[in-house]
Every structure is written in C-alpha cells, then in structure tokens.
Amino acid sequence: MIRVKICGITNLEDALFAIETGADAIGFVFYSKSPRYIEPNLANEIVNQLPPFITPVALFVNASASEVDAVVSGNSRWVVQFHGDESPKECDSYGVSYIKALRMKPELDLRVEFDRYIGASAILLDAYKPGVPGGTGEVFDWGRIPKSSNNPIILAGGLTPSNISQAVSSVSPYAVDVSGGVELAKGKKDFVKVRDFIFEAKGWSKK
C-alpha cells in the first residue's frame, strides 16, 4: 500500500491527527524562510510524543552541518530530507537515512540524478519554480517520471485531496507527500482535507 507523508507540521495536535488518520510519516521544515518553519527543540518535543512505527522527517534547504545536527541529535528516529542543492557527498556525510528532493527543472535528467544519489533511501520529486525551494502548490508533468527506478519515488508538488487518486494511479509511487494541499493556513492543517487526502491516496472507504 502507498505511504503518505504529511509535511509542514508545526504542532502536536496536527501531527497526532494525521497519524491517527493513517499517515506513515510526518514532516517538519527547518528552513527559516518558510512560513512552516519550526524550531528544533519544539520539533523534537513533538517527535518524542509520536507513537512507534511513524517516521519523522526533517527537511533542510542547503543547511549547515550544525543546523542539521541541532535537529537530529535530539532524537534517533529522524530521517533527513535534503531539499536544496546538496551534493551526494554532503548528503552521505551525515551517516543517517536520507531522502533527496529533486525539483523538476525542464532540463533535469532523472536517470542521471538517480545514479548520483544512489545512497538516498528515496527520491522525492517536486515541482520546479525559480527561486522557490518547495511548497509551490504546483503540479509537474508526471509523464516525465520513469516507470522504473532503483530508488523508491516519493511524489510531491501540488497534490490535493481532489487529484491524489489520479496521481497515485498515474505514477504508482512508493509514497506521496503533501503540505499546502491540506492546510487551513500556512502551518495549520485542515483536518477534513488531511483525512480526505490520506483516504484517497490509500483507496480507503470514507464510510
């Protein structure tokens, strides 16, 4: 069954609701320019209260080693998501399980990038918008995604409760990732949208 990551979590209530509704992973943004930014100490307090078998994901954009360490040193459960221009060597240097996000620039050769980031536990594909590292709310051409890959694919970019079923059937990704598509406001989740998104992604009945 497809996995679902709810990203941009800023409070325990949203995290627990997403998990109770069926989310497999919870994402926290440690990029200070994002309206969904969360302080490392608060994020670790939330992670310490998550139930077992849930993966907390720490999202960074071209962060320093000290910024990454300030988060991941607080809990052994973290998986890191590199969402900037980090090289394979830099990603591998932390010795932790990581996801590498790739923004779908027109000239991007996915096969080349898959081979470059062979050490990644998964590759996240997001829409490309100049000057915006993520959270664009835009969908890219899913037809550009290869039908097979050595890396598990996480699909992101403009996903909502209304298009997630089509996305899953079109791409058959390992997992899907959503943030803005299930919000009331930036950093605050809409519980109805979260539930609808997860149920649509997993093909569950809402009855």
UniProtKB/TrEMBL annotation:
<dbReference type="InterPro" id="IPR011060">
    <property type="entry name" value="RibuloseP-bd_barrel"/>
</dbReference>
<dbReference type="InterPro" id="IPR044643">
    <property type="entry name" value="TrpF_fam"/>
</dbReference>
<keyword id="KW-0822">Tryptophan biosynthesis</keyword>
<dbReference type="GO" id="GO:0004640">
    <property type="term" value="F:phosphoribosylanthranilate isomerase activity"/>
</dbReference>
<dbReference type="GO" id="GO:0000162">
    <property type="term" value="P:L-tryptophan biosynthetic process"/>
</dbReference>
<comment type="similarity">
    <text>Belongs to the TrpF family.</text>
</comment>
<dbReference type="Pfam" id="PF00697">
    <property type="entry name" value="PRAI"/>
</dbReference>
<feature type="domain" description="N-(5'phosphoribosyl) anthranilate isomerase (PRAI)">
    <location>
        <begin position="4"/>
        <end position="198"/>
    </location>
</feature>
<dbReference type="InterPro" id="IPR001240">
    <property type="entry name" value="PRAI_dom"/>
</dbReference>
<dbReference type="InterPro" id="IPR013785">
    <property type="entry name" value="Aldolase_TIM"/>
</dbReference>
<keyword id="KW-0028">Amino-acid biosynthesis</keyword>
<keyword id="KW-0413">Isomerase</keyword>
<keyword id="KW-0057">Aromatic amino acid biosynthesis</keyword>
<comment type="pathway">
    <text>Amino-acid biosynthesis; L-tryptophan biosynthesis; L-tryptophan from chorismate: step 3/5.</text>
</comment>
<protein>
    <recommendedName>
        <fullName>N-(5'-phosphoribosyl)anthranilate isomerase</fullName>
        <ecNumber>5.3.1.24</ecNumber>
    </recommendedName>
</protein>
